[in-house]
Amino acid sequence: MPPVISVRHLSKQFGDTLAVDDLSFTVHEGDIYGFLGQNGAGKSTTIRMLLSLVKPSSGEIRIFGKDLNSHRSSILRQVGALIEKPDLYKYLSAYENLALFAKLSGLKADRRLFMHKLDMVGLAGRASGKVKTFSQGMKQRLGIAVALVHDPPLILLDEPVNGLDPQGIADIRNLIRSLSRDEGKTILISSHLLSEIELTANRMLIIHQGRKMVEGEVSALLDPTRSLVQLDTGNDVETRQKLQQTGWKDLVQTTGDGIQLKMDLKKVPELVSDLVRMKVQVISVKPSSTLEDYFLSLTTRPGHVEAFTD
Amino acid sequence: MWKLLQIELFKIFRKPRTYIAFAAIAAFILLIQLALLVNGRQYLEFMLGFLDDGFFIPYDQINNGYWICFTILNLLLIHVPILVALVAGDIVSGEANMGTLRLLASKPVSRSQIILAKFMASVFYVIALLFWMALIALVLSLVLFGANDVVVAKSTELHQIEKADVLWRYFAAFGFASLALIMVASLSLLLSTLSDNSIGPIVATVCIIIVCTLISEMQIPLYDKYLRPYLFTTYMLGWKGFFYIGVDADGQTIKGSLQNGPAILKSIGVLLAYIVFFVSASVFVFRKKDILS
Q1: I want to staple A53 with a disulfide (CB 3.0 to 4.6 A). Which of A16, A48, A139, A230 is the partner?
Q2: Whole domain around residue A265: which residue ranges?
């Protein structure tokens, strides 16, 4: 069976800016595929190319084994998408918006189905409410209902939890998991939040400045035995020198502010003991979990990209 | 395609902005009708008074429903393009601005179909607008003022058309006006595909029409020779040609005739050519467009 999405050497240039640079990745059936990157990394441009909203400068996109360029309509009939913030027709109600986009996806009017989809995202009670009266979170949920209304096997969600409160984020996360687990949907979800991808995706790709940095199983990529730990001792130079005389020297990262070690989190107490023994004053030791730090951990290790790329 | 057109029409007629044009037209026409009901004779004396020395002018007969409708069209049709631009200029760019264009364009319908459906919806809107105008300007004027012969001034000529020979001319004039306004809608559509905000295409359409109308009307020999024949505005007021009646060798009007039928046909041809050009260009631009809004 061909992969659901197969992207090969995809590039997009806007004027002098190379938004996406020679990107290749594969999404398999049933995957929740995390597409991770900072704002401006090229995630949305890539998703827009997958939806044929933006024409690639070069490269190939195949979805369900078919070339997107030559089978656009038949492919898009099987794709549901939420692209960035869900802007809908503000002067129409939630139900009317849903019915309108369902019709565009080839569905006939089916009040029960539409109400079920609105119920699924917690908006059944506001079906007749005008979208202009909705909060950002409600619009986000309606956008997801629009993406799901025609029951597509492939769902592309671009930053789906943006603007949602913690409960809303948890609801959407559970919805994504259940769509994959119970209905076998293939989902590509983009985010700039590592934690979101970690909690929902089984595979992921990290994109930075339009280029792929790494692709692979989330469990392998976010392995706690290779966590980045930030050490604050008040005297970085002296601490670094002392660490160089110990078994920790290979774990010290050479770039970034302060002292960072890539290590197993379970070994943090042992590190602290050694530092105390060396008479290093330890102010704090904390694992770094921001995407930026994770990027640093990737980029400071030559060959890493190749090691984890399919 | 029909499904797309239904959706586009649904969107147009659910938007409050759409009804501004209908309200504006109704207000304008009712104001003219009220004015002519009260001061119709004085207005006619002001317009035709210079002929009083040589002719007997039956002012009360001229001030009838058909003549009032002609007067309304004469005053109003030059401004209706603004109202058309208000809707057609917003039809793509408004969606880009609102962010719905990306959702629309990611559905399994071709971009050409999207643009053609939007164009057809604009055509429907134009026809609805003119039907509304005809209903108030013609039907209501006939109810209020009755029917009689129409007297129309054309520079130094006066054209008198028997009342039995008038109605078809209005159908033809409204048909021609539809074509002219559809041309405006197609221009707005093209400008709309080039922009991501609504105001730009609306203002640009109005500016283009004002500038081209000025050039068409200025009667400067240089412009008359090199610009005027190619401007669409030169042909947009061709509907008046249906009220210029032909005469025989004795100077008697010929019922059912037109003074210059070929000129009207030429105007129709030019307007159609512009429509085809603007719509084709819109499809071309939209198919190539990266939707980043």
Answers
A1: A48
A2: 224-308
Please, where are the H alpha helices in chain B? 2-14, 18-48, 59-62, 65-76, 80-88, 93-98, 101-105, 111-134, 141-145, 167-193, 199-218, 221-226, 233-236, 261-288
Could B109 and A104 be called an inter-chain contact, meaning their C-beta atoms sit closer than 8 Å?
yes
ipTM: 0.76
- Mutation pick from A14, A51, A53, A105 vs chain B, by most beta carbons of B within 10 Å, is A53
Q: Are residues A130 and A187 in the same domain?
A: yes
Interface test with A, best of B15, B20, B102 (most A CBs within 10 A): B102
Instruction: Give yes or no for a contact between B70 and B166, defined as CB atoms under 8 angstroms apart.
Output: no
What would the pLDDT profile of A28-81 be if each residue is shown by its tens digit? 998 999 998 888 888 899 999 999 999 999 999 999 999 998 999 899 999 999
Tell me the whole-structure pTM to 2 decimals.
0.81
- Same domain for A302 and A252, yes or no, is yes
Residues A168 and A73 in one domain: yes
Domain boundary among A215, A249, A270: A215
Q: Which two tokens stand for residue A257?
A: 């502010």
Are A203 and A252 in the same domain? no
The alpha-carbon gap from A70 to the nearest alpha carbon of chain B, in Å, equals 12
Residues A139 and A248 in one domain: no
